[in-house]
Specification:
Layout lengths: L16 E4 L5 E4 L3 E8 L3 H16 L5 E7 L5 H14 L3 E4 L8 H9 L3 E5 L5 H7 L5 E3 L2 H13 L7 E6 L5 H17 L2 E7 L4 H14 L5 E4 L2 H13 L7 E3 L8 H6 L5 E3 L2 H17 L7 E2 L3 E3 L1 H6 L3 E2 L7
Parallel strand pairs: 3-4, 3-5, 5-6, 6-7, 7-13, 8-9, 8-10, 10-11
Antiparallel strand pairs: 1-2, 12-14, 14-15
Helix pairs in contact: 1-10, 2-3, 5-6, 7-8
Length: 328
């Protein structure tokens, strides 16, 4: 068996990578291998993320190799854990991960760190308490979801009256970004005096959101808005409202700015979303992982941009920034 070259000191000095050959031994090359492990590739957001990462690698093919993996849906946590384990076994130099579950992925990410692999957390933050329990520090590179959701909620609230009933369609309750978006929507509703009459998780899925919104408008026919924690669920909400003949009387908002909502934004059927720049989010994480491998930076959290998107900003070609700066 060939031995693995131990060339990391403080996670920063690795410049060699190992490639498994047909005989099971490993060869060294001069480019680090970065594994990008995403959530559901059935979600346009993560397809855009993957495409952005691949374009970045092609433009910098002399600097690193990319292995991009995703899971079939955002609830397939066990498969995502398996993907991380595979990357550990292959001896990649860094893992950039958008975890499907903020708690369940901590243990396997710690195993990666213990194996000397740089781990960068993007999109959905790993749970801080579990990280402390496991005694591991993993930098988060991504947007402030609560801040972004609050801006979306404020845009909706400005079109409503105090006391108006609204609903929140949550993501997966075990995901940090879903919790933060719910809290951001609640912040905006509380500040405007809106009445949140329903708040239910649809686990990021269009079909579930369709069913949930159909039930909510039956139980609360006077509802004035549906604040959805991602655009896929906003599409489900629009379909439910259209079927019930209520699309003109209920405001719908989302989060992610996927291309599928652009036409609905232009028509006013969705009134707002938040753009966290899916095409660049993995790139921010990859660039940060490379900087750590080079020893150019000490791992720490980095906030990335998230912008409010409305019909007006689409027409104007600009969006109002909620946060600035990118991973270094």
């Amino acid at each position: 068996m060939c031995s693995r070259h131990l060339m990391r000191m403080c996670g920063a000095l690795l410049v060699a990578l190992t490639v498994v050959t047909a005989c099971g031994c490993r060869e060294t090359t001069d480019k680090p291998r970065i594994a990008l492990i995403m959530k559901s590739l059935a979600n346009e957001f993560f397809m855009t993320m993957e495409n952005g990462a691949r374009d970045h690698q092609k433009a910098q093919a002399d600097k690193y190799e990319l292995i991009a993996q995703g899971i079939k849906d955002e609830l397939d946590v066990s498969r995502q854990i398996q993907l991380v384990e595979q990357m550990i076994a292959q001896g990649v130099d860094a893992i950039v991960i958008a975890p499907a579950d903020s708690k369940s992925l901590v243990a396997v990410c710690k195993r990666a760190r213990d194996a000397g692999i740089v781990v960068v957390n993007i999109d959905n933050r790993l749970d801080a308490e579990v990280l402390r329990e496991k005694g591991v520090a993993i930098p988060f590179v991504g947007p402030d979801n609560r801040k972004g959701a609050r801006k979306v909620g404020e845009h909706v609230a400005a079109q409503l009256a105090q006391g108006d009933p609204v609903a929140i369609i949550e993501g997966a309750p075990n995901a940090y970004n879903a919790v933060q978006r719910r809290l951001g929507f609640e912040d905006a509703c509380n500040a405007a005096g809106l009445d949140v009459v329903a708040s239910q998780p649809a686990h990021w899925e269009m079909a579930r959101a369709n069913e949930i919104v159909s039930g909510i408008i039956t139980e609360h026919p006077a509802i004035k808005a549906a604040l959805c924690a991602n655009d896929s669920m906003a599409l489900g909400a629009v379909a439910a409202l259209r079927a019930a003949g209520k699309l003109n009387s209920v405001l719908v908002a989302g989060f992610d700015n996927i291309s599928a909502v652009q036409g609905l934004l232009a028509k006013g059927e969705i009134v707002a979303t938040a753009d966290q720049h899916a095409d660049q989010l993995a790139v921010f994480g990859i660039e940060y992982a490379l900087a750590i491998l080079r020893g150019d930076t000490t791992p720490a959290d980095k906030e990335t941009p998230v912008d409010l998107v409305t019909r007006e900003t689409l027409q104007g070609g600009v969006s109002g920034a909620l946060a600035t700066g990118a991973a270094g």
